[in-house]
Amino acid sequence: MKKVALITGSKGGIGSAITSQLVNDGYRVIATYSTGNLQSAQDWFNEKEFTNEQVRLFELDVTNAEECADRLCTLVQEEGTVDVLVNNAGITRDGVFKKMTVQAWRDVIDTNLNSLFNVTQPLFGAMCEKGNGRIVNISSVNGLKGQFGQTNYSAAKAGMIGFSKALAFEGAKSGVTVNVVAPGYTGTPMVEKMKPEVLDAIKGQIPMKRLATPEEIASTVSFLVSDAGAYITGSTLSVNGGLHMH
Ligand code: CAA
């Protein structure tokens, strides 16, 4: 029996690389996509040449607690297990705080932070009962160091780290590890939509003078969920080219 990994926001830049990596590692991946985006999810699935055995597309609004509870309980019954959860879904709504709308604040907190409650709670109990599970939450360098124009995003990404440390305590005696990967600036559509001059200035501050590749983030996730990562819990692994050392 293949192990099952659920990855939220699978077809995004980092999510897609994590999906490919875990498929290569031998997992069956449940790849979530947001409401109404079936066509683009199918296009991504076809482009990657996944099989239905390797990847199951799964519609999930990570901001909707009731929907997550309902659909994820059904999923566990259908699949028999979810061994690995990667909370990867995330958005940006950048803007200076003085001009930030309440909508830009709420959208980011809902998608990036409240989603951790919504998606993790229905799966965590089953992992504890089974005595085995791996949860990896994708935060950001900007949750660790803060970033001009990202009060909403930095708050959510820092919140993910506190959540993960607290849940790591609760999962430890049941064999469920909870860790954070904190990517730096990574070559994805999210980063590519930044103003070129702002991105150039940030690149200049990175000691390695380049963006991360999505595959470099994915291989870190792969390590954490593997047997080799069994004794790591409550940790935050930075993958940021030296942009922030903590
Ligand atoms: N520190 C201090 N001051 C800064 C600054 C900084 N880092 N950046 C800009 N400012 C100043 C500017 O000099 C300017 O000052 P004046 O008004 O005196 O001229 C003022 O702040 C306004 O700056 P902008 O012209 O940039 O304002 P804007 O409204 O056009 O843009 C912004 C605001 C969209 C937030 C833009 O500053 C920006 O894109 N910042 C970077 C945000 C960022 O890093 N986002 C990451 C997205 S990718 C991601 O999030 C993935 C991940 O995890 C890493």
From TrEMBL:
Signal peptide: none
Domain spans labelled Ketoreductase: 3-186
Keyword Oxidoreductase among record annotations: yes
SMART domains, alphabetized: PKS_KR
UniProt similarity note: Belongs to the short-chain dehydrogenases/reductases (SDR) family.
NCBIfam families: AcAcCoA_reduct, PRK12824.1, PRK12826.1-2
Designated name of the protein: Acetoacetyl-CoA reductase
Originating organism: Vibrio marisflavi CECT 7928
